[in-house]
Design brief:
Nucleotidyltransferase, domain 5; 2 domains; 5-stranded mixed β-sheet
Length: about 250
């Protein structure tokens, strides 16, 4: 089976694929200080629990320190397996139609490939993670750019840290948009505020593109607000891992 690894700022997501079929997936916290041996033991422990035999590895990372440890780990624990790390020089089939292609995170390139392959284009991927990323794909599968916004959890943490009488609360939908207490007021502003933010940005992007075939929500926090977003048409939480599988197939 193919092991795909997506290292993000907050979480690392792993999945195994048998051909096109996703078989198992795991989500663990990202720690940039983890050594190669710690990563190796962690990954092997997860895989051993399901008695999975790995035949190849595909990975991407937005955390430079974690990427260095990942390279060392792959060379030490999976040296006999073919591996692909998404970086400049790796074939993705995605043209980067932006000012500075070196600035684009590997996850956004992989998302573009998967979104265009699965849904066509023009399309938009809304990735709910540490930041909320909007990735725009043209009708020819090009990455056109996008937008960044503070993530849901970052916003909750910032309010709790900067406002003396506010505290961190559970990120969930309140019973009403009109909060009857401090907790509900916080939840209402952030929950409906984020949904409105997503819809407005997608609407403006759609105006510039002329048409959009799909708006795909992904990321660990997507399920919190997508039911309130009128512009979201699909929810694919594993789109980055699916894209990693596609990149692996293109290169090996």
């Amino acid at each position: 089976m193919l092991l795909c690894i997506d290292i993000g700022n907050t979480n690392t997501v792993l999945a195994t694929f048998d051909g096109d079929k996703l078989v198992h997936s795991w989500r663990i916290k990202t720690d940039a200080r983890s050594t190669a041996d710690e990563l190796g033991l962690m990954f092997r422990g997860l895989l051993a629990g399901d008695n999975v035999e790995i035949t190849g590895v595909a990975a991407c990372s937005t955390v430079p320190a974690a990427l260095r440890s990942l390279r060392t780990m792959l060379g030490r624990y999976y040296a006999d397996l073919p591996s692909v790390i998404v970086e400049p020089g790796v074939r993705t089939g995605v043209q980067l139609a932006i000012d500075n292609p070196k600035e684009v995170g590997a996850d956004r390139v992989v998302n573009t490939l998967a979104a265009f392959t699965l849904y066509g284009g023009p399309s938009i991927v809304v990735d709910f993670g540490t930041t909320t990323n909007f990735d725009v794909i043209s009708g020819r599968g090009e990455f056109l750019g996008g937008a960044f916004a503070p993530g849901i959890e970052i916003s909750f943490d910032a309010l709790a840290a900067r406002a003396a009488q506010l505290r961190k609360v559970e990120a969930t939908k309140p019973r009403s948009v009109i909060g009857k207490n401090t907790v509900e007021c916080l939840q209402a502003g952030l929950y409906f505020g984020f949904a409105g933010q997503v819809d407005r940005i997608v609407e403006r992007m759609t105006e510039e593109l002329g048409e959009v075939k799909a708006v795909i929500a992904t990321g660990g926090l997507a399920s919190l607000v997508i039911n309130e977003c009128s512009t979201i048409t699909h929810h694919e939480p594993m789109i980055t891992l699916i894209g990693l599988r596609m990149v692996y197939d293109r290169n090996l």
